[in-house]
């Protein structure tokens, strides 16, 4: 085991009617100016926005609206939020949305107490601000687990860069499973697969310990509930389980004492700056191709994954079972109606973009195999 100090600072209120039961009490700790951040307006159509505003009005808060955060937050939108936060002397941002809204708010808060450009400060000067703004989360789409960590991804379009910045942890999170019941299957499922990829990326990092044993249980629960959705059993129990599964993986409990891999994520992030594709959908294309490229370097671990997680119970040597596990993952992706190629997803990956992505993406040294730039390019070509 590696040495570690573990602390999870985020308070989560999980359950139905969480906004009405808990938001008012939490708002006592913050000043008058509350900024509500959200996406393209679905929270206004489904009534969640009104639930939040009603409580804010009861508490006599001054509401500052910050709408139209895109599905892949841009740095331009982040800068707009920082400006609005500072101009209105905001005391707390409430992120009403999923991972994109949450990520955007984290990065906004990272830049609210400094005069420097936060992108330049963190990436060029290597400085993480000691003082940051405050934000909380009312989750309306689960999957990325962004509500539980301090990391936010954004795309700097002018630079063709999608990177992860460090922000604050949420002051509190309200997870009401009723709020995700209205999310359409085709929107919800990519987030579910994103949760599974976080588990797998952690699991296939070098070393094996008790964190992996717990991770196996979490992956099995995600897959079980994915299959319930696939088979039309779309209940609040199923969505509740998936909502909490997503949060659990981003507590980083399953990273304790071991490194993760996250090679597929690094490829997807670099590609996302060009494609602007949905994170979970692109990972569904990349992840199996990546595993086919590296499984021979960790055959016993992939065989264990096949047996213990993917439910492969056939006889055979470890290499045969490892391949059957990857095949089972590919079938799960297809059954979930997720694309298995970029073309099927509706994105034309050119050789030029694939070459650039292969040259600029991060390369993992803690996974089954450290890929070369040429191997990453070939992997992307197989995903077309």
Topology:
Layout: E1 12-14, H1 18-27, E2 33-37, H2 42-45, H3 48-58, E3 62-66, H4 75-87, E4 92-97, H5 99-110, H6 118-124, E5 135-139, E6 151-156, E7 161-166, E8 173-175, H7 185-203, H8 210-230, H9 236-249, H10 263-275, H11 279-294, H12 299-308, H13 318-335, H14 342-345, H15 351-360, H16 373-382
Widest β-sheet, arrangement of strands = 1-8-5-4-2-3
Compute the CA-based radius of gyration.
21 Å
The CATH superfamily title of the largest domain:
Dehydroquinate synthase-like - alpha domain
- Total number of domains: 2
| Overall shape | globular
Helix fraction, binned, reads: 40-55%
Organism: Allocoprobacillus halotolerans
Domain Fe-containing alcohol dehydrogenase-like C-terminal: 193-381
Protein name: Iron-containing alcohol dehydrogenase
Keywords: Oxidoreductase
């Amino acid at each position: 085991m590696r040495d570690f100090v573990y602390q999870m600072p985020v308070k989560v209120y999980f359950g139905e009617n969480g906004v009405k039961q808990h938001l008012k009490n939490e708002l006592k700790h913050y000043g008058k100016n509350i900024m509500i951040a959200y996406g393209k307006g679905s929270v206004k159509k489904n009534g969640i926005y009104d639930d939040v505003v009603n409580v804010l009005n009861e508490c006599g808060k001054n509401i500052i609206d910050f709408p139209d955060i895109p599905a892949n937050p841009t740095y331009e939108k982040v800068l707009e939020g920082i400006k609005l936060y500072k101009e209105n002397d905001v005391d707390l941002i409430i992120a009403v949305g999923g991972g994109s809204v949450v990520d955007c708010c984290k990065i906004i808060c990272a830049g609210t107490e400094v005069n420097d450009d936060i992108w330049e400060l963190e990436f060029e000067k290597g400085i993480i601000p000691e003082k940051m703004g405050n934000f909380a989360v009312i989750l309306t789409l689960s999957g990325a687990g962004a509500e539980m960590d301090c990391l936010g991804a954004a795309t700097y379009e002018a630079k063709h860069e999608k990177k992860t910045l460090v922000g604050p942890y949420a002051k509190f999170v309200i997870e009401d499973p009723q709020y995700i019941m209205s999310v359409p299957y085709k929107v919800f499922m990519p987030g579910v697969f994103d949760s599974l990829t976080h588990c797998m990326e952690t699991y296939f990092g070098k070393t094996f310990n008790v964190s992996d044993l717990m991770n196996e249980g979490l992956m099995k629960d995600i897959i079980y509930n994915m299959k319930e959705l696939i088979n039309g059993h779309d209940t609040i129990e199923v969505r509740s389980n998936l909502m909490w599964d997503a949060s659990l993986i981003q507590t980083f409990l399953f990273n304790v004492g071991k490194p993760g891999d996250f090679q597929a994520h690094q490829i997807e992030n670099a590609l996302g700056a060009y494609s602007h594709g949905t994170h979970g959908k692109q990972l569904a294309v990349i992840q199996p191709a990546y595993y086919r490229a590296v499984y021979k370097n960790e055959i016993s671990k992939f065989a264990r994954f096949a047996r213990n997680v993917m439910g492969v119970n056939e006889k055979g040597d470890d290499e045969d079972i490892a391949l059957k596990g990857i095949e089972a993952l590919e079938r799960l992706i297809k059954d979930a109606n997720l694309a298995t190629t970029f073309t099927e997803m509706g994105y034309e990956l050119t050789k030029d973009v694939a070459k650039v992505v292969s040259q600029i993406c991060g390369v993992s040294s803690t996974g089954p195999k450290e890929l070369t730039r040429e191997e990453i390019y070939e992997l992307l070509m197989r995903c077309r």
